[in-house]
Amino acid sequence: DSDPLILGIESTCDETGVGLVRGDDLLVDRTATSMDQYARYGGIIPEIASRAHLEAFVPTLDSALDEAGVSLGDVDAIAVSAGPGLVGSLTVGICAAKALALALDRPLYGVNHVIGHLAVDKLAEGPLPEHFIGLVVSGGHSNLLDVHDIATDVRELGGTLDDAAGEAFDKVGRLLGLPYPGGPHVDRLSQRGDREAIRFPRGLAAPKDRDRHAYDFSFSGLKTAVARYVEGARQCGEEVSAEDVCAAFSEAVNDSLTSKAVRACQDTGCGTIVIGGGFSANSRLRALIRERADAAGLTVRMPPLRFCTDNGAQIAAIGAELVRAGVAPSDPGFSPDSGMP
Ligand code: KG4
Ligand code: ZN
């Protein structure tokens, strides 16, 4: 095979990821996570996450190389998440990547983690289409992107004005007393509830916002509406059905995400939606986007669940696209960019 072997390194948040990709093919994807250390805090502690990356990086790299049956000398180029993310976590992955690039004398690419959430889709479904609308949703980001070439031409159409979708799910989970992170638990409960039992507001649905924020999201008002509903019911001594609250809340979030993604396709004359990010594991998002894309005659591509969570394969995948497009490697002195757009 003549495609270069790309090593991808991920450390934006609490996952230490190492992936090896050749062209559109995944050789191996290894992840270590420090998630289980945060349950008692109800949120990530950056200092613990940085330390965990430091401990996990070399063993994760070694086991990835072992499993793929390759040695470090076989790697042709290295890609690492340069942002957005926690600065301490990013620093560990970037230092490791710089050290490897220097020792092996290979080109190094500092890449955008969020775009990696879309690039990973090619490892499951084959080459990405020429033009697509990307919907990236996770605990840290909710973005609509107009993608003409994933390596060189990605335009941001809109994003969340306040909370990310996963973040809103985690906050509603906490409100209902569910373990951290609440997203998957709220998803599970929502599957047994009645989506129409409660009508929660859709963010930015008012006429004055409809055009100015056609591709933006807002979930903090919704979260407040859920809190008010739950408190109101408890004060009246009424039984709150967590299943119904989760189902109605999930419907409001996913109604906004999917209707705006479809609208972006229609407005740009694009035929394909690609979703990605930790929240793209959400069962209602996957069903509703399929339903609405079908109704609008659009194709929708979604990564398998194992590629939704942060991973090294997504970073190797975007690295492979940069190499394919002939993009110049990063300046060797680049720094982590925790607020990277
Ligand atoms: O991409 P990711 O692993 O990390 C970030 O970059 O944020 O996403 C994690 C987020 C968390 O907020 C988690 O609660 C949420 O994605 N999440 C879900 C589901 N699975 C993960 N939210 C709703 N439904 C799910 N099934
Ligand atoms: Zn992510």
UniProtKB/TrEMBL annotation:
EC number annotated for this UniProt entry: 2.3.1.234
GO MF terms held by the record: tRNA N(6)-L-threonylcarbamoyladenine synthase activity
Cofactor note: Binds 1 Fe(2+) ion per subunit.
Major localization listed first in the record, in broad terms: cytoplasm
Keywords: Acyltransferase, Cytoplasm, Iron, Metal-binding, Transferase, tRNA processing
All copies of domain Gcp-like, residue ranges: 27-316
Cofactor(s), by name: Fe(2+)
Database matches in SUPFAM superfamilies: Actin-like ATPase domain
InterPro entries in UniProt: ATPase_NBD, Gcp-like_dom, KAE1/TsaD, Peptidase_M22_CS, TsaD
Record field: catalytic activity: L-threonylcarbamoyladenylate + adenosine(37) in tRNA = N(6)-L-threonylcarbamoyladenosine(37) in tRNA + AMP + H(+)
Compartments reported by the entry: Cytoplasm
Binding sites annotated in the UniProt record for substrate: 136-140, 170, 183, 187, 282
EC class name: transferase
Gene3D superfamilies hit by this protein: 3.30.420.40
Residues that bind Fe cation: 113, 117, 310
Entry function: Required for the formation of a threonylcarbamoyl group on adenosine at position 37 (t(6)A37) in tRNAs that read codons beginning with adenine. Is involved in the transfer of the threonylcarbamoyl moiety of threonylcarbamoyl-AMP (TC-AMP) to the N6 group of A37, together with TsaE and TsaB. TsaD likely plays a direct catalytic role in this reaction.
Family according to the record: Belongs to the KAE1 / TsaD family.
Protein known as: tRNA N6-adenosine threonylcarbamoyltransferase
Species in which this protein is naturally found: Schaalia naturae
